[in-house]
Amino acid sequence: xxxxxxxxxxxxxxxxxxxxxxxxxxLEARLGEPIELKYILDIRDFPDSPFSNRVVHDFExxxxxEEVDVIVETIGGAKVAYDYTKxxxxxxxxxxxxxxxxxxxxxxxxxxxxxxxNVNYLFEAAVGGGIPVLRPLHQCLAANEIEEVFGILNGTTxxxxxxxxxxxxxxxxxxxxxxxxxxxEQDPTADVEGHDxxxxxxxxxxxxxxxxxxxxxxxTEGISGVTLRDVELVEKAGWRVKLLGRALRQEDGRVSxxxxxHLVRAEHPIAGVEDVFNAIMVRGNAVGEVMFYGPGAGSxxxxxxxxxxxxxxxxxxxxxxxxxxxERKAEQIAPWDALSARQYFRVKDGLHQVDEVFPxxxxxxxxxxxxxxxxxxxxxxxxxxxxxxxxxCARLWVLE
Length: 400
Ligand code: HSE
Hints:
By secondary structure, the chain is of the alpha/beta class.
């Protein structure tokens, strides 16, 4: 009998309990033994829940119970969750989480503790919600040197962009919808300003390149500066706007990562990824390009990945799954302005000024006193330097 506990009975924690109830027979068959949710740790009570009798308020009850094999952490944040996770691992418990903030910031340290204690620390649900992507990246693509990983990593912002464009819903109303559907973070600023996608690209980069990239290494811009005007204008010219997280290995071996809204060509596979769906593309030097697609947020999709990790942890109790990356080294991270890109600008200038500053640009729209164009390919430092002499209204990255 495998017994486990859930810390944090919010959207994902409740989804874990629901899956357990719904699929208990098949989970037991796959595991080869029964599985029981023994405790739910939360500061609240849930009198109407069928699991109300499992609710406890004291972490010590869980961590000191020798019957508990696996602890699921769905508290979120990097404070209480960090403390409890560390103590749980040190106590020899396997820990499974959907907490991207915690893994992005403290993953390296927590995985080291897990290794010392010969227990599993698994976090498939932390990136892409229900999409299996971390395990395939780490295991199935292990034969590759990974050159690049990028994608739509936040369901809430993709949902907002889709609703604004397809249904003419306002930003605020679309955000409220995403919140009511259980997609958004407790503080949706983390979604809208790109912090959530930043944490996820850190985790993907950690696994892809085997070394720690921290959120402070990742220049991050969300969708709050994206206007409907630009979205409509670029759509007419055959592009879509998507918030992307991107990490790539430079020729000198250093890694660059960033999060920003991008123009993506309408025919690119990522352009058709709408609503809460996420898609992650990985380029390896043997496999080429592969894409992972599915629901990136929501109670049951995210809990689907959590419960699978619980089974995996239970099945690897003797021989833990080897997973980890080396600590951050500043010299392994490329400065942001060394990145090369094309960018989209909308400016209040004349054609001749654009021609002078960015000769060879692709003009998307030209009206009196307003030009929208895509620059030629150059370093971000150079793009910044040249852009200073123009009257900028909007600026977006371009995915090539
Ligand atoms: N708020 C996150 C999102 C939840 O919208 O993608 C899943 O990590």
